[in-house]
Structure formats: C-alpha cells, structure tokens
Amino acid sequence: MRKMSIKLKITLWFTLFMTLLAAAAFSFLFFAGGDIVSKSSRNALRSTVADSFDEIDYDDGQWEIDDDLEFFIDGVYITVRDSNGALLYGRLPSGFEEPETLSNDTFQTVQFRGGSWTVYDMSYTDRSSGQTVWVRGVAEDSGAGGNSVFSTIFRLAIIALPVLIILAAVGGYLIINRAFKPVRQITATAEQIGGGSDLTQRIALGEGRDEIYTLAAAFDRMFDRLQSAFDRERQFTSDASHELRTPTAVIISQCEYALENAQTLDEAQAALGSVLEQAKRMSSLISQLLTLSRADRGQAKLNLELINLSELSEMVTEQIREQAVPFDIAVTSEIQPDILIRGDETMLMRMLLNLMENGLKYGRPGGHLSLSLYRWGDNAVGEITDDGIGISQEHLGKIWERFYQADPSRSGEHGSGLGLSMVQYIVAAHGGTIYAESTPGLGSKFTFTLPL
C-alpha cells in the first residue's frame, strides 16, 4: 500500500466506499422494504377479514353467509367458524396445517410449502343473540422471506452490485486523474526549472478557486521571486566584478610602471599614491558589500545607543560644506536642536554623508544643497534637497538598487552605485522609512523618518 501512488490509493478508497454504500443501500432496501411490505400485507389481510363480516348474519338461530362471500379473495383464504371452532364456510390450501387455537386480532406464522404463511383470526358477536362467529384469513407472507418481490430484488442486487463497483472504480479513476492533472503540470514545470537554467517557466493554470489552483498560483509567485533573486544575484556579481576590475587594473598598471620606469623617489611616490587611492576605493567598496551581504543574511548588528541626531547632522553639514567648495555649491542647514534617537552613530553618519555627497555629485555649479531636520509626531524627519540635474521618473524607482547609477557620467570615478542601497538599509534597520522626489532639471529631495 505504501508503494502505491496517491491517485491509486484514492481510487481504491473511493471504490471501497462506494461498494459499502451500495451494499448498505441494497441491505436497507431488502430488509426495511421487506418489513414495510410485510406490514402492508398484514394490514390488507386484516382489512379482508374485517370486510367479510358484512356478508355474515345471524337469523333464526343459525348463521347465514351471503353467496357474495368468496373463500379466496386477493390471495387470502377465508374460513368462517362457530364459537367452538367448527368450520361453517370456506377452505384452506391443501395440506395446510393451521393453528388449532383461535386468537382474536392476532397474527400467527406457519411454515408451509417452503414458505412463510400468516394466519389472522377475528371474532364477531351478534348484538341481538349474543352469538359469536370467527373468521380466519390465511395468506402467504410477501415480506423478506417471500419468493416474489424480494427474490427479484435479491437477484437484481447480485447483478447490479458488481456493475456498480466497476463503474465506481472507473468513474473514480477518471475523476481523480482529471483532478490530479494540475499536479502533474506543477511537477513537470518544477522539473523543467530544476533541471535547466530557464527560470521563465511558469505553471500558469489560469483562474481557479480550489486548493490546487491556489497552490499553483503560489508556486508561480515563488518562481517569480526566485527569478528576480537570481537575476539580481547575476547582476550583482557582474557589477561587483566590474567595479573591482577598474581599481585592480589601475593598481597593477601603476605597480608595473613604478617597477619599470620610476627613476626618482617622487615618481615612485606618485605611483604609490595612485595605488593607495585605488586600494582605499576597493576597501570602501568591499566594506559596503560586506555590510549589505550581512544585512541580506540578517547577521548585521547595530551598536545602538542614545544619539543626538541634531549634533550629528551639524557635524555632517560642516564636513560637506568643506567638500562643496570645489563644486561651487552652497550648503545650508535648518536643524531643530536636541533631537534624540536610539541608533548606531557610525551607520547614521554614513547615511547622512551618502545623501549629502549624492547631492554634491548631481548638483550644478552655483547651486544649493540643504539639510533640514525636525520633529514630527513620534519621528525625526530629515530632508536633503538639491537643485541639481534631477532624476527622471523611469530611473527614480531603481535608484535603490545596488550598483544602479541614473547618470554614470556624473557619478565620478569614486562612484560605485552602492550609496543609496546602503542608505535604504541603514534607515530600515533603524525602523524608519525613506523616499525620493525629483524633477529633471530642477533637483531632488530625499526624505527620511526615524523613530524618536
């Protein structure tokens, strides 16, 4: 039984159930129906005997029986007897051994000719003379022990039951086979996806309300997420390789140049300076990748402490103001004092620096960059606004993706496309939210909220 398929098991159980149900139905019909027919037959026997009294009358000291009274009426043998049991009229089947005792309104059963017969007696007393007469009715029992109706039902049951079993088995198999068709489709699709590199395959059962259609839809959604995850993984690997290849190539070329061509200490120091700059870039990139990788695995830990976000924002503003001098961008701030939150100071500083540096990167000469921070209900709200080149709507929804750069030509040689991904992670890790608004040619605004 363990090695059978689920489809075969269900078919066998269904067939067994239908067999038992049919057998129970036939048994009920045979026995309950027999009881009903037996009661109906006895009622008919009682009624025939009772009707016989209409043809019997006591006159001039003797019982007179009308000629209309028949001794055999609708399968009932009628006999009329005096108070002592002596036969006055009628007859019984040949060889029938009737009960000697007369019992008023009582049914008695007698076995005769291999069958069951019912004997019924009823007494009648003439009111004027006080004389009593008995009428006995005898009829073959047509209940469960009879040979007519129920023998026919029994023969039909013997023929019909195997036919019903076969029909139940075949019909159950076809129904179950059709019901399991979506399961086979799910299995085939899963095997195609698991056995190859094509993640675009879908079950696509269509609309349906039962559990299998719901399961198929859940699998399709899971396959969508898997494909999206694999696509991001492939893109991430490609982008990380590309970002690391450039500084690695610079380091190799500078080292080769210094080894082959450097004649003075100044030339060697210049080459080492370029190598150091690229190594720092690689170190920063690797650090960010490691942080994001830990965040993906849920292993990144924050060193939470009470932070004065207002003072931290002032420090970042001063640092960015110095960096903005070569860009000819004016940096301003409007910060409410003593806004306290629980957070990781290093992470929050990185978040503010990334947002502000992003404003410098995509700003315009002679432009403005501002940081505002204020309380709003139970949250601290920060806004970083610039009047730079802005971001088009087609790029706005993708800026949080890793290595994505809306305008690579403006990112500079130090841009990796991980800054906003880090910002989004840091804000989310502190229980906050962040979103961006932008109009091409007019600038952008990044708004974040952090719980107080």
Series of H and E elements = HEEEEEEEEHHHHEHEEHEEHHEE
User: How far from one another are the termini?
Assistant: 63 Å
Report the major sheet.
6 strands, antiparallel
Oligomerization: single chain
Structural class: alpha+beta
Poorly predicted runs of 5 or more residues:
409-414
In words, what does this structure look like?
The protein is α+β, with helices and mostly antiparallel strands. The chain has nine helices and 15 strands. The protein has helices spanning 6-52, 149-179, 181-195, 211-261, 265-296, 309-323, 345-361, 393-396, 419-429; strands spanning 56-59, 62-65, 72-73, 76-82, 87-90, 106-112, 115-125, 132-140, 305-308, 330-335, 340-343, 368-376, 379-386, 433-439, 443-451. Helix 4 (211-261) packs antiparallel against helix 5 (265-296) and helix 5 crosses helix 9 (419-429). The radius of gyration is 51 Å and the shape is rod-shaped. The two termini are 63 Å apart. Mean pLDDT is 78; it is low at 409-414.
